[in-house]
Structure formats: structure tokens, C-alpha cells
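Record 1 of the preview.
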Amino acid sequence: MVAATALLSFGLAACGGDDEALPEGEASTLEEVAALEGAAVLMDAQALTALDQPIEYPKKKKAQISSELEVLEPGQESGWRKYRVPTYVYVMEGAISIEYDAGVVKDFPAGSAFVQAKGIWHNVSNKSDARARTLTVMMGAKGISNMAER
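->
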């Protein structure tokens, strides 16, 4: 309730709303809301993918956003795939390793947030002894397949 009130008040203030002070103990900035609620910024103003490509959104089609939670048990792999749209990935639990074509390997522990490479084949694996869980958000467009599998 405090967060909702604070966000509403912050939003109104940002839009030129009532300048009245908030009651004592309530947050007045997004940073204060995060401190009260235990929230954290996962990624801010990212402009490049995990392989340093500029992020580019699909053009000339209506936007569509899709998401999925993926679980990889120890030793499990996703199989080779590539994304055709900008794709945000957050490692919720465990750790993942991603092998890209040409042999580049990147490791991402729990708490990592990144934009996946676009148009490049990759295989996600869990090389640890614990379960890995990721949240994947694909920022696509109507009529465009988000992902291809080999």
C-alpha cells in the first residue's frame, strides 16, 4: 500500500500534480520506494546486447511482448536457438552458461540481467549442481517469430 501510494504520488508530482507533501514515513522518490520495498534496479538504460550489438526494435509492425520462465536442472541445456527480437533475460536462481556460435562462452550468475544477442545461435546450459531459473522477456512484433530453434 505504501509503495502504491508513493508511486502514485511520485507520478502525480512528475506530471505537475499536487505539490502537497507526503505524510511522514511515505516515500517521495522511486529510490525511496525501492528502499522501503526492498526493490532493486536490475538494468538501467542498456543499449547493447550480451555480444555488444546495438539494441534495435522491429519496425513497421505492432509491438508484442512475450515472456517465459525457464528452468534448467543441473546438466540440462536449452538446445541451440536464436532470437529475432530484442530479448531481456534475468537469472532468478542458480547460474547459466551461454555458448554462442564461434565458441564464445559467457557465464551469468543469479541476479544477472542482460539483453540476449540477436540473430546469433546460442545454447544455454546449467553447469552447476543447483537448479537455474530465468525470466525471458521478448520485445517482438505481430507476425514476427521471436525465436528459431536449430
